[in-house]
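B., you asked whether I could sanity-check this one before it goes into the benchmark set. Here's the sequence:
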Amino acid sequence: MAEAPDLVDTPEEWPVVRSEDRHRDGWVMALRQDWIQRPGADEEEPFRRLVLEHPGAVVILAVDDEERVFCLWQYRHPARRRFVELPAGLLDVEGEDPVVTAQRELVEEAGLAAESWAHLGTTYSSPGISSEIHHYYLARDLREVERGDFVAHHEEADMQAGWVPAADLHAAVTDGRVTDGHTVIAVLMAQARGLLRV
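And here's what the prediction gave me:
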């Protein structure tokens, strides 16, 4: 058996022979199809892959001095469920550092500002279909602030919010009651790094 490659994801780009938009209308996401040529296999026909374009997002695990986590309960139409989630937001300001996006989203969605920020990690949600990337942050030393001119619309206008003991949230994640992938990742990353007392 051959020796395994290095245990690290690496940038790589295969030639795209042609692309075609399947849906693009100025909303956050777009859907295109690419025809790709496998490197060194010019005798093979290019093959088609659908790509969901997405700007990426940030997710914030905000933990107060009592080791409680700020959570949101939000309806998500594609899954037909109301999920327990964490504050999050799109990377929709070109060139903005993700931690700056996270700071803004925490103010808008939670009315909170944090003095302490720790990057927990970065993941691709579903790289077989999408370019969507998520940056996870732990926010501590919280204080309440005004939400500015933020106005909630659509599903966000129906969100509920509340503080949950970190141990309870961790238990709900590990026993399958909380299933939002980003919440699961943030909680388990923080716990694995010893940054969340559960």
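One thing to flag: The helical segments are 98-110, 166-174, 181-192. Otherwise nothing jumped out at me.
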